[in-house]
């Protein structure tokens, strides 16, 4: 059998870039379809929470889900937990892995600088065999991250003052420098409102964020972020009336990648401040 012809370095790079672009385009379509339905968003959040067994970004977790995976790891990471990739299996699932370059900082010390991302293969659980995984995800216990902690994390993340005030019929609002939630709400509702308004602040506020989308789309984006984050935290959350009312007019222009990136940013900030017990409860919620 003749060998496949060798390709030049330039051709190899061109082929890899084309593969990355094709995967990004596929992900864009996948996210658009998922964000447009409650069932689709439920699928995303369920997968991400199960995928808490590893520390992939929300973005990579969605890539794994889109490609039909459940829990995926590199060959070496499976080996480290005493599972081996079955003979003959190929790493058909791809994720984006960061690439770093060692450079000197202002003080002459070595630092790792992010220079881009490359596609890397991972193997799904069903492609492996060995020690059984310990699943804690089906417990009936509920996680308990306090509103006070969420308020501190989101205040630090957004740089906005978080306050509780009498707001009349409104549950809350954001004016660019301040996020207000109704002091008449219970802590669960306060948390829901706070995440929604924090999403508005992160996505729609500031001179450098020219708002090329209308109010209906802004509501869809903020409510989608709130839904994804709260689902990750294990809080039951029905899509709000605002989302439903804005759905037809706003969903068409919703920036799906921006929704995912903002959700990931908030989730990472919350995880950083959560105790081991809180993180455990998130995993099993």
Shape: globular
Q: How far apart lie the N and C ends?
A: 54 Å
What integer is the average pLDDT? 77
The total count of helices amounts to: 10
Helix content: 40-55%
The proportion of strand residues reads 15-25%
Class from helix and strand fractions: alpha+beta
- Listing every helix as H and every strand as E from the N terminus to the C terminus, the arrangement reads HHHEHEEEEHEEEHHHHH
Largest sheet: spatial strand order: 1-4-3
Give a quick account of the main beta sheet: strands, pairing sense, barrel closure. 3 strands, antiparallel
Give a verbal description of the structure.
By secondary structure, the protein is α+β, with helices and mostly antiparallel strands. A hairpin with a 5-residue loop joins strand 3 (93-104) and strand 4. Residues 135-143 have low confidence and may be disordered. 31% of the residues are buried. 49% of the residues lie in helices and 17% in strands. Helix 6 packs across helix 9 (256-273), helix 7 crosses helix 8 (241-250) and helix 7 (215-233) runs parallel beside helix 9 (256-273). The chain starts with 8 loop residues before the first helix and ends with a helix. The strands form 3 sheets. It has a 3-stranded antiparallel sheet. The chain is globular, with a radius of gyration of 21 Å. The chain has 10 helices and 8 strands. The protein has helices at residues 9-35, 38-50, 58-66, 75-80, 147-158, 187-204, 215-233, 241-250, 256-273, 276-284, and strands spanning 72-73, 83-85, 93-104, 110-124, 128-130, 161-165, 172-174, 178-182.
